[in-house]
Amino acid sequence: MHVSLSRVRLGHSVEGAVLDGRDPASVAEAAGFNTAVVHRPSLVVAATGAADVVAAVRHAARAGVPVAVQGTGHGARPVEGGVLVTTRRMQGVRVDPVARVARVEAGVRWRAVIDAAVPHGLAPLSGSSSGVGVVGYTLGGGMGHLGRRHGFAADHVRAVELVTADGVLRRVSAEADPELFWAVRGGGGAFGVVTALEVGLVPLPEFAGGTLVFGPAAVEPVLRAFARWAPTLPEEAAASVALLRLPAAPDVPPPMRGVVTLALRFAHAGPAARAEELLRPMRRVAAPVLDFFGPMSFAAVDGIHMDPTEPMPSVARGALLHSVHGGPVDALLAVAGPEVEAPLAMVEVRVMGGALGRPATVPNAVAGRDGAFSLVAVAPAPPPLRDTADAVTRRVLDALGPWSLDTSLLNFAGPERSAHRIWEAATLERLRRVKAAVDPEHRFAGLPGTGGLR
Length: 454
Fold this sequence. Notes:
13 helices
């Protein structure tokens, strides 16, 4: 028999705050990085540790309501009703430099892991921004600057601690519950609330990276050159190009104010001299208006993409491409090039391949290994422009549709995140079997628009 949700009753069982969804304080607690996403839960639990998560899940189960979780809210989806667990206070990080493993609690951002690992000559498989949460990024696969050499972040998870729908805290690994371990690494948050991960670190004695910014006249030739050059790179190199539309604001570098520029992002897990040698063909195409490339510590990795650090409203959609040479460049320029008026913030094309295209040593459910390139379109989405942002990002993906694959990266799949557009049929069917076994009542929603993993 279900009982009603009770803030007071649950408050007696947790150390963190329990807020009624109608309480103004709950709005601030539930706010995430993407402010276009608004949550309306019945209760918000500000978890301080795994015990709070256990109590929250058990209370939701007794009441027969769903449970959602949020760390940083970079990839958030709207929550309606039920219990929202926020994990930002769970900040434990412990690095074992001998075993090359970090144990990371649910609220930790990559910055804390990078800072703990780099002094030991190690690096995590983090992404373009160290402000992103470790858990959400990793559960969705996680593709960063070291991915072509080492694979997805999920490929380096050693163990997962999570609270399943029965309110039990479990530690799963390749040896302990291998089927759930397979599913949660790449299957997202549909199987429970992760309270901690153990992730492998990689040695990184030398690193170089940065961005070359090209003005509007150079966008087309540099983009076409990138399409030919990027697939020839060795696995220790990562590269992407981004069509950027920045405002004419004082904090924007003058060559980028109010115009469409092309940013070539490049990273190399090795000597800077070799990196410059690899980058030379692109420098010959055109002279950059800004040049931020050089040797760096991995601790300074945010300086490559220079992603926004302050919360903002946005819509992002992504796809995987089998090619970008020729027709795809034409299509991209037609919808997002310098001659087009489009309310886009960024359209990025990133080369994949290498270890990103190979199976993990311990198999997992990560989608997207068949992609040659990833495509992401981002548009600002303050309330008056939400529909416009939806439309313009769809337009970019539609234009590249003829070169798109049937699978996509979970972290970049977009607001709808249709399961059929992410995983291959066999992987999706296996995920559904695991879901039915560990969460038969679909306490954790998983992917919207698909009935979770039903």
